[in-house]
Structures are given as structure tokens and as C-alpha cells.
Amino acid sequence: MEKPRLAWALTGSGHYIEECLEFLLTLDEVDVYLSLAAEEVIKMYGYHLDDIRVKMPVYRDKAASAPPVGHFYKGYYHTFVMAPATSNTIAKCVLGIADSLVTNLYAQAGKCRVPSIVYPCDIAPEMETTAPKGKKVMVYPRPIDLEATRKISTFAYTEVVDSVDSLIVAVNRRLAVVQGG
């Protein structure tokens, strides 16, 4: 087997998606997983799926059983990143619902004790974010969404980050560990 890779899932959140994609595209040995909503959102922010495919393999949410999750059982991945993650995805993960490619990836990573790094879009009571076409907007996550973020941060093998900078630090720290640095 080749050396383990990083699995990175994008959901339908636009919260700092441009910055997440910019960082993601600098990495090597990564497989990208897209929810159905992520495919729509990356287009809204001006990204093209073919441009991502040139750099790394892309798996799309097209099968009911999410066959790629079996890679976790083969030691194919050393880390799972979910960034950015919608409040819907976080809520499903907290409740143990694995009914989509991304939620199934998170569940299987946990079952295989593969560390996950999660960047929820709802991380604070008030946040500025960038809408499509660059417009800055304020968002006010609901208490239930903030509670789900708090709950997922207590899960084993899960590190929740609260900014793109902390996402970059967490991913680089994992890469250093698996590369023996």
C-alpha cells in the first residue's frame, strides 16, 4: 500500500470556502470528497470541479452506500478534514446520522480511530462571512447550531477549529506527525 493520505470533505457551506480551497489546493496526497451541496457552492464561488481534479482525486456523493468510506478500513487515510462544514452536517454527525458521503466519512473515520479536523461554519454567536461575488455579510448562528458545534468538539478523535488559520495549523500538525517530523 502507498503511504496514507489525507481525506478532505467539503459541504455546502460558503463560510471561508475560498480560503479553505486555496489551502487545500496547496497540499499533496489528498483526496477530496464533495457533498451534493458542495458541488453547487464551489461553483457559486467561482471554482470549477475540473480545476480541482487536475490537482487531486475528487469523489462525489453519487452512491447510496458511499463506497469510498471503505478506504478508512484499509489504512488509506491518516486524517479526515471536514472544512468548511455546514450546521446540517455537524448536527447529523452529532446525532450519529451517516446518511450522506460526508457524514458517513466522519462516522467511519471515528470507528477506525482516524483523527478528524472539523471547521464548522457556526463557530460563534456573530460572524462576518463572504457571500458569493465577494460581498461581506453578518451571520448569527442559532443556539442549536452553536450547541452542536460544542458537542462535536467533545467527540473522540475530533479536533474542532475556529478559523482558517487554526485549520491550517491543525492540518500541518497532523501532516508533520504522519511524516515523522
The number of helices is 7
How many whole angstroms does the radius of gyration measure? Answer: 15 Å
Instruction: Give the class from helix and strand content and strand pairing.
Output: alpha/beta
Helix content: 25-40%
**CATH architecture, please?**
3-Layer(aba) Sandwich
Give an overview of the whole structure.
With 181 residues, the chain is of the alpha/beta class. The protein has one domain: 3-Layer(aba) Sandwich (Rossmann fold), CATH 3.40.50. Helix content is 38%, strand content 22%. The chain has helices at residues 17-24, 36-44, 49-55, 87-95, 101-111, 143-152, 164-178, and strands at residues 5-10, 30-34, 58-60, 77-85, 116-120, 127-130, 136-139, 158-160. The strands form 2 sheets. It has a 6-stranded parallel beta sheet, with helices on both faces. Strand 6 and strand 7 (136-139) form a beta hairpin. The longest helix is centred in the last third of the chain and has 15 residues, at 164-178. The chain starts with a strand and ends with a helix.
Task: Give a short synopsis of this structure.
This protein has seven helices and eight strands, in the order βαβααββααβββαβα. It is of the alpha/beta class and 181 residues long.
